[in-house]
Each structure stands twice: as structure tokens, then as C-alpha cells.
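One example given next:
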Amino acid sequence: MTGPFQTLGALRHSGAVTRPVKQEIRDNLVRKLQAGDPLFPGIVGYDETVIPQLVNAILSRHNFILLGLRGQAKSRILRGLVDLLDPLVPVVAGCEIHDNPLAPLCGACRARIAAEGDGLPLDWMPREARFVEKLATPDVTIADMVGDIDPIKAAHGGLNLSDELTMHYGLLPRANRGIFAVNELPDLAGKIQVGLFNILQEGDVQIKGYPVRLRLDVLLVFTANPEDYTARGKIITPLKDRIGSEIRTHYPQTRENAMTITTQEAWTSRAGGVPVEIPSFVREVVEEVAFQARTDRRIDKRSGVSQRLPITTLELVVSNAERRALQNGEPVVVPRVTDLYAALPSITGKFELEYEGELRGAEQVARDLIRAAVGTVFTDRFDGADTKTVVEWFDLGGVLPLTDTTPAEQVVGETRGVQGLADLTARAGVLPDAAAPWHAAAIDFILDGLYAQKKISRSEDRSYVAAEVSPRRARREEPLLEEELRMPGMGGKKKYYN
């Protein structure tokens, strides 16, 4: 890329000064802080927790590691560090490790400068090319990360194998004057970790018995799962000791933050088709599924529940609503709460089950999560609302055979006789003059909310009917039978119907 100076002489005469990469990032961060510019656009919910710690690490010129479960924006944060680099930096033209022309590192560049002097040609490296990312896997070798001796170079140049000019550089030297990110650090073999800390701290490494000195100018950043990172034997102590800061990430702490992330990431604006309008209560239920999953005892907490769950779930919810609108010729796509059941393929693939969950089955666990999420959001929105009239309609024998494929006009028409239901749709935020798909979505939410609260029931054909209350369930305090207590998953504990 073309820069302001094309030769070493022009660069020198300009009085330009180059800085170590950690100082460069620090200086640019200081300017952003002073100007009040956003530091990490697109990162939501970390303003009071993760970002202050990250800023402190950069101001301290630390190598650092982000510890967190999957789907906590660790990789996105690392890639966002690129914005703290200078737009362009000068490098020696043709150098594999992007050497600094004012302070050359490799022997080949020093020899070229001695031979060519001020006429040495320069290249200009953009900030995007200065970020190198590597996913750590057990099969990564020291040659991949640091480099290897190239006997062909030695033979052609008449060099000794211990000469650094015979080296074929790996990823870390090629990240010189930039940022080198290693994802899932604990998966690196121990000898590779030794190579990393040795070359960073002492600036040398042995390759096939030959010592090679490489005082690299690089910011080294890592990601890891907290459990893997703290487990004995996963991280060698000298490398852990040389990482300046350990920064913990987390999942969104509020439903509002989670909705902002999902709105930002999910593909819901689908140009060229029927316009998509998503009710806020549908977005809330989608996010609440993830919140319920993160606290459910049947789901493995160590693997976490990624924020990708609500993102992909919302996309499938919109797709199911889009399919219904296209088939029925509706003017607008308005997802319903029951469209979440069409998103089960996305939900079940986003969590790992404990033993009790395996007994229940992934799909049934997902259905339970949806029902709990609907119940939580419905309670938040309709706390104190009078739903007795609607429930009594079902208790008197009313049946509503509604599914996620029922056209909006049909949903509105079949529920017109349910007393009190229209008033509740207004409480859901749907105006009286709204289009039929909006009214259908509100009706669907109310009925599914009453079902989640066990005030009405839903049959296998998805018809809403009166709640079935057995004598034992009505008494509530009667315990399970002795033979039921011995069933798998009961754990021999005394349980009650609720």
C-alpha cells in the first residue's frame, strides 16, 4: 500500500518516529478516551465490567487473556483492538516479518539497509493486516507458531543451519509489529506454550537444537474457558505468570442488553419480501429462553449457553412467520410466541445436558424452557391484569384449535367471542386499528401465557382447552407415590406436584 514516503531516506529526513506496538495502542486509546469516542462499537453490556478492565490492561501495556464461556464476544473484542492501531505503518519492502525500517529486527533487513542505505524501498502496512489470529488445537506445532529451519535456504545461501537467515517464519513472527491472538489457549500443547513465553520474555527460542533470537514487537492476547484455564496441567505456570491481566467476560446481565445484542446480530431485515415487524414481547420471550437455560439444572453450566441461541432462534422464528405470511397472503410478517416451537432445531443445539437432562431429552428440555420463558414474560407484562373472564370461557367448554400456521384473520375471527381477550391484547401493546397479524400475535401470546401459568391447557393438536386439574394436583400437598420416588431422575427425594 502506498504511503507518504517510498524510501528509507525520505522517512528518516521527515523526522518520523516509530513506536512499539503496545505504546502505539496505548497512545491511540488515550486519544479516544480524551475525545470521548466509542472504544468497542457493537459490544453491549460490558461498559461497567469488562471494558474498564480492558482499558486498564492496555494502558498498562499488558499482554492479557479474556476468560469466558462461549458466545461472550471474546473474539469480537480482540478483533476490535485493530481500531487502536495506526492506519498505516512503514515496513521494509519484501520482509516476511514486516520489519521496522528505523529499527530492523531480522538479519536480512539489516544487511539490506547496510547495502542499500537511504534508497531502501518501503511498503506501508494497513492496520487490518497487523492482526493475526490462531485457533489453538492440540496438533499445532512449534513450526506453525514460531517457525522452522529451512535447509533449502541454508544450501542456496551457503549458510550454517543455526543462522537466523535459514529460518522459515511461523505465525508469531509474521505478527511482528501487530497483534497476535490465540483462541482457546489451553488446547495448545505444553511445549508450544513454552515457545510462546520464551520468545516473548527472553526473545529467543530453540528450533531443532539451534537457538534463534527474535525480539518481536507484538501484543499477545488470548481467550480461554475459565474452567480449562484454571485446571491443573492445562496452562503451564511460566506462561500464566507472564500474562499481565486476566479479564473475565460474562453473558448479558439484563434482558434489555440481550435484546440489543440480538437485534444487532440477527438477520431479520429481509429486503425483497414481505416486511417484518417483530413484537417486543416476542423478542423478550426469545431472550428469556436463554436466561432460563443458563439457570436450568438440567443444562451443563460449564459449557454455558451462548448468546448465539437467541440470535439464531429469532431468525428461525421470523422465518416461520414469514412462511406463514407468504402462504396466507398476509401483508406483514409478525412472529408469534408459538413460532418458537419451530425454532427447536436451533435451541437444542446450543446447550449440553446434564444426566437429568439426558433422561428428559433435549427437545423436551427446550419445550420446558420455552414454556418457562413465556410464563416469566407474561407475568411481567400482565401482573395484576384480570384474566378470569378468559379462563372462565375455557372452563365453560370453550376450545380454540390454533396452531402456528393458522392465518391471522382466522385467529382473530375464532377468538372474537372470547370475552375479555380484546382488552388483554391492548395491554400487550397492540392498538385496536393494528393489522390482523399483530392482533393474532398478541392473542397467541396471551393464550400461551395462560397455558404457561397452567390456567388453561393445550392438547396434542395444539388446541387450547380448559385446564385439567386432578384431585391429587388440586390438593397440592399430597406427595408422589413411593414407586414414583424410585423413578430415574427423582433421586430418591420427596417431591410434590405443583
